[in-house]
Amino acid sequence: MRMAQAGTLESADCLVTVAPAEGFGLDYRGGNRKLFGERTRRLVSETLERLEVTGVQVTIQDQGALELVIRARLETALARAMKEA
Amino acid sequence: MRAMRSMLYIPGNAPGMIQNAAIFGADMVMIDLEDAVALLEKDAARDIASGFLRHYDFGDLPVIVRINGADTPFFEADLEAIVPLKPFAVRLPKCQDPSDVFVADSRMTEIEKRAGLPVGTVPIHAMLESARGIENAYAVATASTRVGALTLGGQDLTADMGIQKTRDGWEFFYARSRVVMAAKAAGIDAFDTVWTDFNDPEGLFRESRQVVEMGFTGKAAIHPSQVAIIHRAFRPDAKEVRKAERIVAAASEAERQGRGVVAVDGKMVDGPIIVRARHLISLASLYGMEGGEA
Fold this sequence. Notes:
The structure holds 2 protein chains of 2 kinds. Chain A is of the alpha+beta class. Chain A has a single domain (4-82), classed as Ribosomal Protein S5, domain 2, CATH 3.30.230.10. Chain A contains 2 helices and 4 strands. In chain A, helix 1 (33-50) crosses helix 2. The longest helix of chain A is centred in the middle third of the chain and has 18 residues, at 33-50. Chain A is globular and about 35 Å long. The model of chain A has no long low-confidence stretch (mean pLDDT 95). Helix content of chain B is 46%, strand content 15%. Chain B has 12 helices and 10 strands. In chain B, helix 2 links the parallel strand 2 (28-32) and strand 3 (63-66). The longest helix of chain B has 19 residues, at 238-256. Chain B starts with 5 loop residues before the first strand and ends in a 9-residue tail after the last helix. In chain B, 45% of the residues are buried.
């Protein structure tokens, strides 16, 4: 795994960065942090579990993205991170 | 009658726009994975489009997805991701001849079988955007029962022909005629290309009127502001609608009385005129024009 990104800083989107790490870490930033912090942690954990990814630091800059958009951006970032250089 | 006058293009990598797709009033939207998406973002756009098709409620708004062509490395992955999610149709770009439809059709059939869907669930809208594609319009239209529409791709066609698009659009007259005739002959829909200058609504209206008169089912829009203009172009004339209603009423009455021939406003009316009148009334119903005063 290597560091990778997906998404944009446009409204209703988010920028997801994933990087190799010891264990799991989530840095969730943006105005939605208080309101959707728990939900986002859950959806990130579920996605990582489903894709059997461990040892990753996930950073999400949320610009008001729907849940499905955060999930899609995370999946794209992880696929890019796993891809052979 | 399902309204299919306007089809709004939305870039596949723009979740904010996809999320708002339904509020622009277009009869259909088309999520674009092809030309509106940069090469390095093809994977991201595919994931976003799949995410929306899987989880988002578009209501009864038909959502079409334009995939990348068979000559790209994205074609297979696009079909694999999109077809199981049952979009209203898959738009297949750059169709040159029936073999392009065969390739997509057989891949889609495999995917549908694997996903437990009836074969043919997802229609193909075949996009003709080269001189060769235009010349093979009918063969493409009839290459598979999955082909539900022909669509004209004006941008690529001008490039292929080495010409410029003019405001009058006469350079598309043959291509449009050919596309619409082939679609009618095959019993499928025909959709016209985009009007790219969204600062020229008058030009869009004129062109839209032209394609309505030629028999196209609808026209693509590249900006939400174009939707209402296209709908205005499809709006039938009120007097014509009233006349159509008189024709249909007279024809129903004649049928009840077992008469084959009917006269309306002093003119003989026969089969094709009645068919045309019924079509006009269906179109008028989209504008709430039925049953009004002449």
